[in-house]
Specification:
It is a single chain. This protein has 338 residues and is of the alpha/beta class. The chain has 2 domains: 134 residues, ATPase, nucleotide binding domain (Nucleotidyltransferase, domain 5); 167 residues, Nucleotidyltransferase, domain 5. The protein is built from 11 helices and 10 strands. It has a 5-stranded mixed sheet, sandwiched between helices. The protein has a 5-stranded mixed sheet with strand order 8-7-6-9-10, with helices on both faces. Strand 2 and strand 3 form a beta hairpin. Helix 5 crosses helix 6 and helix 5 packs antiparallel against helix 8. The longest helix is centred in the C-terminal third of the chain and has 27 residues. It is globular and about 65 Å long.
């Protein structure tokens, strides 16, 4: 403890960011160090799992040391260790889990494994100290597009999920085929601002009438087919229009299903989480839709949307308070469900 505050040292390594943070009493961030590998993986057009794991191994101790130094604490003052144990890339997850278990064993500090999706949701507890469950949450990331109803800090009810390509995954794939490269999400968002979202009539896929699930693989294929058709016909392709039209098709479906979920649950608080939560059109359209329906929208700052350890520290705190520590048999679970 420091000044009577419960301190959590958290580690996040589910994909290509190595991050460590110190969080006080679950919601106050004392440090949040993120070492990104974007520049490394850009050359490959996406994340290469083995390379990501190797860089986590190289960066982990340095990032933890920096987090402790910035928070002005040492291991003797840490009350809890929190680490992402899934979902994610198995090799990347193992780097964080193994490190956390080693520190826990050597220092005698309780350990908690955290579901990465709960981490993304918990970013909002940091951004909004007044926020408390219950609420509706939209999680939009590279691997997931989920609608969940949070009934407690550590419990949720899944209303809708990704059936194939998640929104973030579709962004990366479309960015690659239209020549924007990696990472696709922010690049499409930036280029789309210069395009016409109605230039190309990409189909909106809503699935069955009452379904709150998501499917974006068909949209990805539609973009590819459009590009092939236009190239074969020798017509000019306006990249900005393709990006804007694709983005509009994704966001329209997400917003429509989210509003349907809000109507179905009666929730008047909506929390946005995940890497794609930084998307400007998604934020703007959700804000407009919520304003019409009297729903309070919570959107974390962009640094809390990306993978970071502060959100893991918050989630670890509430899990520990609810159910105590995990044991040293904790493992990495790449397909961990929310």
């Amino acid at each position: 403890m420091k000044n009577g505050k419960f301190l959590t040292l958290a580690i996040e390594s589910s994909c290509d960011e190595t991050s460590a943070a110190v969080v006080a009493d679950g919601r106050t961030v004392l440090s949040n160090i993120i070492s990104s590998q974007i520049a490394i993986h850009t050359a490959f057009g996406g994340v290469v799992p083995e390379i990501a794991s190797r860089h986590h191994l190289q960066n982990m101790n340095t990032v933890i040391d920096q987090a402790l130094k910035e928070a002005d604490v040492d291991f003797s003052q840490i009350d809890l260790l929190g680490v992402t144990c899934g979902p994610g890339l198995v090799g990347a997850l193992l780097m964080g889990v193994a490190t956390a278990k080693a520190i826990s064993f050597a220092r005698g500090i309780p350990l908690v494994g955290v579901n990465h999706m709960y981490g993304h949701i918990s970013a909002n507890f940091i951004a909004y100290p007044e926020l408390e469950p219950p609420f509706l949450c939209l999680i939009v990331s590279g691997g997931h597009t989920n609608l969940v109803e949070m009934t407690d800090y550590v419990q949720c009810r899944v209303l809708g999920a990704t059936r194939d390509d998640a929104a973030g995954e579709a962004y990366d794939k479309v960015a690659r085929v239209i020549g924007l490269g990696y990472p696709g999400g922010p690049k499409i968002d930036r280029v789309a601002a210069e395009g016409d979202p109605q230039a190309i009539a990409f189909k909106r896929v809503y699935l069955e009438k009452d379904s709150l699930d998501f499917s974006f693989s068909g949209l990805k294929t539609a973009v590819l087919n459009y590009l092939n058709t236009e190239r074969q016909a020798g017509r000019e392709i306006r990249t900005a229009d393709v990006a804007a039209s694709f983005q509009a098709a994704v966001v329209d479906v997400i917003v429509a299903k989210t509003m349907k979920a809000a109507e179905r649950t009666g929730q008047k608080q909506l929390v946005l989480a995940g890497g794609v939560a930084a998307n400007s059109r998604l934020r703007a359209d959700l804000h407009q839709a919520c304003e019409k329906r009297g729903i309070r929208l919570y959107v974390p700052q962009p640094v809390l949307c990306t993978d970071n350890a502060a959100m893991i520290g918050c989630a670890a705190y509430y899990k520990y308070k609810a159910s105590g520590p995990d044991d040293l048999y904790l493992d990495a679970y790449p397909d961990l469900a929310i």
